[in-house]
Design goal:
The chain is mostly helical. The chain contains four helices and two strands. α1 runs antiparallel to α2 and α1 runs parallel beside α4.
Length: 163
């Protein structure tokens, strides 16, 4: 049975405002990481990408916790986690609503950056796979050249580890 929505107290509004503020800050930092990830992907710096991944995952977990906390607060107030619910609760708080609009905009930017980085990763993987295929195909080619430029067949030497 659904209960009617509760009237939010000033403390509820304050808690929601703090969650929105924290989310805006975290999203800005997450976007900065995504921009750095994009640069590293373009540069092909895999070592730096590996180091960045841990930080990125931690930032994502922080954002998820903030979103979960916001959803719990709204649920406790008898509302579904939605833009409309936040606008209703913060109707008399224009600065909080402006910050919420910023959160929505930042979340869109983060999504777009993440999509772009995903495409860059797919392209990098395809490039690496093509390079690997070329190398593997070249390894199957029998002619090798000696120091004087004459071709010689593979397998003419002694096996490593044999006497």
């Amino acid at each position: 049975m659904n209960r009617p929505p509760l009237v939010p107290t000033p403390a509820d509004q304050q808690r929601l405002a703090l969650l929105i503020e924290a989310e805006a800050i975290q999203l800005k930092e997450f976007i900065a990481l995504l921009e750095r990830e994009e640069s590293l992907l373009v540069a092909g710096d895999t070592d730096a990408l590996l180091a960045l991944t841990q930080d990125k995952n931690e930032r994502y977990r922080r954002l998820q916790r903030l979103s979960d906390d916001r959803a719990l607060l709204l649920g406790r107030l008898g509302r579904t986690p939605s833009d409309a619910a936040i606008r209703e609760i913060c109707a008399n708080l224009p600065r909080v609503l402006a910050r919420w609009d910023e959160v929505i905009e930042l979340a869109g930017k983060a999504r777009d950056h993440n999509d772009l980085n995903g495409k860059l990763i797919v392209e990098r993987m395809a490039h690496n796979q093509a390079a690997l295929s070329v190398l593997l195909t070249a390894a199957d080619q029998p002619p090798l050249y000696d120091a004087e430029g004459h071709s010689r067949p593979i397998g003419g030497g002694r096996m490593l580890g044999s006497a």
